[in-house]
Design a protein that fits this description.
Subcellular location: Membrane
Region (Disordered): 1-21
Transmembrane segments: 53-77, 107-128, 180-198, 204-229, 283-300, 320-338, 727-753, 773-797, 843-869, 875-896, 957-978
CATH topology of the domain at 36-356 and 703-708 and 716-919 and 929-1031: ABC transporter transmembrane region fold
Biased composition (Polar residues): 11-21
Family: Belongs to the ABC transporter superfamily. ABCB family. Multidrug resistance exporter (TC 3.A.1.201) subfamily.
Strand order of the largest sheet: 6-7-8-3-9-10
């Protein structure tokens, strides 16, 4: 590919005139704009099916009914109060009283049964539909991602997509599941209680209802503020996730430059941005809860005060039982409305998360591959014309890439584009594939403007083979079959499809090596390692299997060694026959047979014609050829050069391993290609047979979470809040005091009720006592506001700090892992990013507001039971007997939800990883028109989860319903036994009311604890995941116990080194390798893919440790030295430079790890790497933003920045791993000059496939099968006419 040219600065060559017209601006804006979607709560249910809506409808009815049934007991309570008063005044016989008591107790049993059924049905319905609707949103979001145009992804990181599809959808699922049922039940209780109050005494109820307005104002204002803060926090979290994804995907670069600390601090800056609005949201919430509870207690005082006035006034016909009914109804309704607030927070957060997702879902893509709009031609010849094309990338609107470009590409011919980086070569492919729209001019296919053609149909006529083949985690046959998608051939019988697959494999020179694999075409890509050449030939077979009319080759061989290049190039020459073929190449030897070679510079054509004609012109093309030509100095002429080249073709262009023994075949063909041994980006992993950014359509195995005790996890989480321990202790004390409010209120409540039952002769005392108790309620209200706000604020602060530290430390732990940790499939970039996004948020389930509420409820329960036991132990003991049953139900429900969460985590992590990686490889997906196939695979994974979770949902709902209905049984038992004691005059009215109120409200408090069970279950699982991550050992990266390396000479010695990757111990990569590299020497490593070249560099960097033997630097075994100080003397420049979000300066300074580097040092490093002039020519200079993964720079520019990053640390050993293979001739020349200058005075080891770059090396080692087969200078090796001689001849252009 042309140096990641698409979203590029395009260097100094491009015009930077900001003179775009309004129409150009509109075209650019349409490609990147994403209007924000305003979503209300009901808008979340946009994708609910009819069945979902029916279930939701019934669930709403059941939830409201469950809530509405609760206040009915207040009527019974009021009636029984009047009955008790009649017994106390001897106006009713004991038998009549007992009959009345029994009748009301039976009503309580009926209420319990009704509550059990309604709560169970409502909870099961909402949990099921919540999961189903959130799954639909996941599916629709992923579908929307797949239909977006490529420009949309230029400014959107894959990590942000992961955050949206995991953390945000989890927030939505949480907000539309059991939380809705709890909210509706609370509201049902509130409304029904107030209706009962109005029926009994509308005057008193109307006065008490004044507080309702206050409650609504408090809830409305605070909820609106919380929504704003939540949106801001989610945006910052998304940006942080994108950065984390970039860093984890380029972990080898991070480790090589010891940049973990610098990048971790950068990630933490995004976390701090999210922390502040998150903290404001939580503080707003706790203030809302405190204010609502305060208003409720003020309401109690007002109700008793006015009720007593109505009672003494006989005109109002108000009885003591009526006042009690009204007050209990108001108390119960207000209490439940207060409980709505915590669950309402989840609803408002869900709306904020949905707004983010629906913004992408609702976005209209200007280049939608799923659209049916456009013409589909009956026949395609392949004539392509570009007329007056002007192109600007939307991500860099001030840079003009192509201006008035005119190109004719005849059908059936091969046209090659060459030129320096940023000249617009890959832009032509991007325009032909319609990845972007040009701002002016037309691109035509057979005389039809491609803008008028159906996009999916157009892409199905074209096949693209790029520099890095993206293979799917499926069998080889399936990978090739994916090329048939949309061609009509994929619907044929399987036997016929297999014939197409094998024919394409033969044309791509892949059939023989595929048959040699253990399972042949059924070999799974994820279970074997293929060399770079083998992967590329499979990609070629996939591209040609549908017999495309147009074939696009974008640097298809640049990353391969000479041997693999020969095989692949032979395959490409074969398949290009009779097709319109467009080639982009930096290795000019691959395009010399093209019918027409077009030389681009500054986005314009400077030369064109066949190879021979251009060579005769003595122009730009000839200079480029000569720059790549290998000099044959002091070498006797070959008697028959053509014969030598033909002999080379026969030996190297058959198959990689035809001439090897079976054992050797196993050793090489099943080994990761050499580039993958080191790979600075996640797409090139050593022991990963598939790219980290590949698209898994089959689930990988997932790691098992170790069993940890609750206490272990609690101590682990508490460690994140160590600095906040004083705040936590203060919050604990405030929670204990706040928990005592309810028991105190119950005593005051009993006193007030007893006062209201005074006879008419004592109405004066009644009024005085009522005034006194009403003032007590005023005091309790103010104390409640202070205590709840205080404990809530303290826990909210501690919670946000804990989440911040958990994310920060988890990220640091990931960065400190050894490289083999990232080689494992379960630790893919997508999975780790999902863990940082979603898992840490779930840790808050046992902290913050939830922890404070649980503490308050626990103290409330204990204090209530203690007071009840003190006041009347008989009745208290009978009622308490039901409490263990309630606690058992809650405990079992937490256990069920924990198991449920563990299963859900497995499915959603796999699917989220697939989504993240699909977005990262969106160009491959778009080129193959694989959107539907990828989406179906994702949808299958998602839907399987819901089917397996139906039974656990029902079980947990039954247990939760039991915990909610048992309080009514407790009331029935309490009324029956307490009434019996009262009837026998063992208990006074005050004692009965105290015991009864304490136990009833205590039991209800126990029930509210279990409403937090989902949060606790998720938090327990998330804590176990984090604990396992933190417990994972890191042997190399975190090793600081060895000898500190203060200086280094650069003497390198390999003694009998054997190496195998831990994931493939049966496949040796190096076998008894011996090398000696003297200080200051320039040494080159060459050889076929899989020979172990890059493994040597990986071992020197201590990405891995040798299986046997020793590696010594300056006579010291590198396993005995301090890793960090050792790496400070080494610098690595790889094939694909990994740059990170931030400025050019930030990326260069990553190489030194010190913030006190002078400006002169930075400038010196930039001058030595030939990048200084380019940087200072930019408007922002060193402060220019490079974009995600350096996407704003061209390949050559990125590589020179990477060299500057390497040189600023003044290394004694410089490692060059294919540092110029992906560059065009002009960029290669500039970069090679920089590398040659950088190597002076340093021990330099270069891995190279382009042999022209290493012919000046002091020693060249030719590796094969993990050992050295030849060594010497270029001249010496050429005279020997061995393997090196054959490799050189194959690359010569003359």
């Amino acid at each position: 590919m042309d140096d990641t040219e698409w979203p590029s600065f395009m260097g100094l060559q491009q015009s930077t005139k900001p003179n775009g017209t309004s129409s150009e601006s509109a075209i650019l804006e349409a490609q990147i704009s994403a209007p924000v979607s305003k979503v209300g709560f009901f808008g979340i249910y946009r994708y609910a099916s009819r069945v979902d809506l029916v279930i939701i409808g019934f669930s709403c009815v059941f939830a409201v009914a469950a809530g509405a049934g609760l206040p009915i007991f207040t009527v019974l309570f009021g009636n029984l109060t009047s009955t008790f008063q009649d017994v106390a005044t001897h106006q009713m016989t004991y038998d009549d009283f007992y009959d009345e008591l029994t009748t009301n107790v039976v009503y309580f049993v009926y209420l319990a049964i009704g509550e059990f059924l309604t709560v169970c049905l409502a909870t099961a319905g909402f949990v099921y539909t919540g999961e189903h609707v959130s799954q639909q949103i996941r599916i629709q979001y992923f579908r929307a991602i797949l239909r977006q145009n490529i420009a949309f992804f230029d400014n959107l990181g894959a990590g942000e997509i992961t955050t949206r599809i995991t953390a945000d959808t989890n927030l939505i699922q949480d907000g539309i599941s059991e939380k809705v049922s709890l909210v509706l039940s609370g509201l049902g209780t509130f409304v029904t209680a107030f209706i009962i109050a109005y029926i009994v005494s509308w005057r008193l109820a109307l006065i008490c209802s004044a507080t309702l307005v206050a409650l609504l104002l408090i809830m409305g204002g605070c909820s609106a503020a919380m929504l704003v803060y939540s949106k801001v926090a989610l945006e910052s979290q998304g940006r942080g996730a994108s950065l984390a994804e970039d860093i984890l995907d380029s972990i080898r670069t991070v480790v090589a430059f010891d940049a973990q600390e610098t990048l971790a601090r950068k990630y933490e800056s995004y976390l701090k941005e999210a922390e502040r609005p998150g903290m404001k949201s939580q503080l707003t919430f706790v203030a809302m809860v405190g204010a609502m509870l305060c208003v409720m207690y003020l309401n109690y005082g007002l109700g008793f005060w006015m009720g007593s006035r109505f009672l003494v006034n006989s005109e109002n016909h108000v009885k003591a039982g009526d006042i009690l009914t009204v007050l209990m109804a108001i108390i119960l309704g207000s209490y439940n409305l207060g409980n709505v607030a915590p669950h309402g927070q989840a609803l408002s957060t869900a709306v904020a998360a949905a707004s983010k997702l629906y913004t992408t879902i609702d976005r209209h893509s200007p280049l939608d591959p799923s659209s049916s709009v456009g013409i589909k031609l009956n026949t395609v010849l392949g004539d392509i014309t570009l007329r007056n094309v002007r192109h600007i990338y939307p991500s860099r609107p001030e840079v003009v890439i192509a201006d008035n470009l005119n190109v004719d590409i005849p059908a059936g011919k091969t046209t090659a584009f060459v030129g320096p980086s940023g000249s617009g070569k890959s832009t032509i492919i991007g325009l032909l594939e319609r990845f972007y729209n040009p701002v002016a001019g037309t691109v035509s296919l057979d005389g039809h403007d491609i803008a008028t053609l159906n996009l999916q149909w157009l892409r199905q006529q074209v096949s693209l083979v790029s520099q890095e083949p993206r293979l799917f985690a499926a069998t080889i046959a399936e990978n090739i079959r994916f090329g048939l998608v949309g061609s009509g051939l994929d619907t044929q019988p399987m036997g016929q499809v297999q014939k197409h697959i094998e024919t394409a494999a033969r044309m791509a020179n892949a059939h023989d090596f595929i048959l040699a694999l253990p399972q042949g075409y059924d070999t799974h890509i994820g279970r074997c390692s293929l060399s770079g050449g083998q992967k590329q030939r499979i990609a070629i077979a996939r591209a040609i299997v549908k017999n495309p009319k147009i074939l696009l080759l974008d640097e298809a061989t640049s990353a391969l060694d000479t041997k693999s290049e020969g095989l692949v190039q032979a395959a490409l020459d074969n398949v290009a026959q009779g097709r319109t073929t467009i080639m982009i190449a930096h290795r000019l030897s691959t395009i010399k047979d093209a019918h027409n070679i077009i030389v681009l510079r500054h986005g314009k054509i400077v030369e064109q014609g066949p190879h021979q004609k251009l060579m005769e012109q003595d122009g730009v093309y000839r200079d480029m050829v000569e720059a790549q030509q290998i000099k044959h100095r002091n070498m006797p002429p070959s008697p028959n050069r053509l014969t030598a080249k033909f002999r080379m073709s026969r030996s190297y262009l058959q198959d990689d391993d035809d001439d090897l023994s079976d054992d050797a075949y196993e050793m090489i063909s099943m080994r990761t290609d050499d580039e993958s041994d080191i790979g600075l980006q996640g797409g090139k992993k050593v022991a990963r047979p598939v790219s980290r950014m590949s698209l898994p359509s089959f689930p990988h195995g997932t790691k098992r979470t170790r069993p940890y005790s609750i206490w272990t996890l609690f101590r682990f989480l508490a460690s994140f809040n160590k600095p906040e321990r004083p705040f936590l202790v203060l919050g604990l004390c405030a929670s204990v005091l706040a928990g005592g409010i309810q028991p105190s209120q119950a005593v005051l409540f009993a006193k007030a009720i007893t006062t209201l039952t005074l006879p008419e002769s004592q109405y004066g005392k009644l009024r005085d006592d009522t005034n006194f108790w009403s003032l007590f309620f005023l005091m309790i209200g103010l104390v409640t506001l202070i205590l709840y706000s205080l404990q809530g604020a303290l826990f909210a602060y501690s919670s946000e700090r804990m989440v911040y530290r958990a994310r920060s430390r988890a990220f640091r732990v990931m960065l400190q892992q050894d490289i083999p940790f990232f080689d494992r499939p379960e630790n893919s970039t997508g999975a780790l990013t999902a863990t940082l996004s979603a898992e840490t948020k779930q840790l808050a389930g046992i902290s913050g507001v939830t922890l404070g509420t649980i503490l308050i409820v626990s103290v409330n329960l204990v204090a209530s039971l203690v007071v009840a036991l003190i006041m009347g132990w008989k009745l208290a003991l009978v009622c308490i007997s039901a409490v263990p049953v309630l606690l058992m139900c809650g405990f079992v429900r937490v256990s069920m939800l924990d198991k449920f969460q563990r299963r859900a985590k497995k499915a959603y992590q796999q699917s989220a990883s697939a989504a993240c990686e699909a977005a990262s490889a969106i160009r491959t997906v778009a080129t193959l028109t694989m959107e539907s196939e990828i989406h179906r695979s994702y949808e299958v994974q998602i839907r399987q989860q819901l089917r397996s979770d139906i039974l656990p949902i029902i079980k947990s709902s039954l247990l939760y319903a039991a915990s909610q209905s048992l309080p009514f049984m407790c009331m029935a038992l309490g009324f029956w036994y307490g009434g019996t004691l009262f009837g026998h005059h063992e208990y006074s009215l005050f004692k009965f009311y105290v015991c009864f109120s304490e136990v009833i409200f205590g039991a209800q408090a126990a029930g509210t604890v279990f409403s937090h069970a989902p949060d606790m279950g998720k938090a327990k699982h998330a804590a176990a995941e984090f604990k396992q991550l933190f417990d994972s050992a890191s042997g190399i990266t975190a090793h600081h116990a060895g000898t500190h390396v203060r200086e280094m000479q650069g003497l390198i010695e390999f003694h009998e080194v054997t190496f195998r990757y831990s994931t493939r111990p049966e496949q040796p990569v190096l076998y008894r390798l011996n090398l000696t590299i003297k200080p200051g020497q320039y040494v080159a490593l060459v050889g076929p893919s899989g020979s172990g070249k890059s493994t040597v560099i990986a071992l020197l960097e201590r990405f891995y440790d040798a299986t046997r033997g020793s590696i010594c630097v300056d006579g010291r075994n590198i396993q005995t030295v301090d890793t960090a100080s050792y790496r400070n003397h080494i610098a690595l420049v790889g094939q694909e430079p990994a740059l990170f979000q931030g400025t050019i300066r930030d990326n260069i300074l990553l190489g030194c790890g010190s913030a006190d580097i002078t400006e002169e040092t930075v400038i010196k490093a930039c001058r030595e790497s030939n990048i200084y002039d380019f940087i200072v020519s930019l408007p922002q200079g060193f402060n220019t933003i490079v974009g995600s993964k350096g996407g704003m720079l061209s390949g050559g520019q990125k590589q020179r920045v990477a060299i500057a990053r390497a040189l600023i640390r003044d290394p004694k050993i410089l490692l060059l791993d294919e540092a110029t293979s992906a560059l065009d001739s002009e960029s290669e020349k500039i970069v090679q000059t920089a590398l040659d200058a950088a190597s002076h005075g340093r021990t330099t080891i270069a891995v190279a496939h382009r042999l022209s770059t290493i012919q000046r090396a002091d020693v060249i080692y030719v590796l094969d099968q993990g050992g050295v087969v030849e060594s010497g200078t270029h001249t010496q090796l050429m005279r020997r006419r061995g393997r090196y001689h054959d490799l050189v001849n194959l690359q010569n252009l003359t």
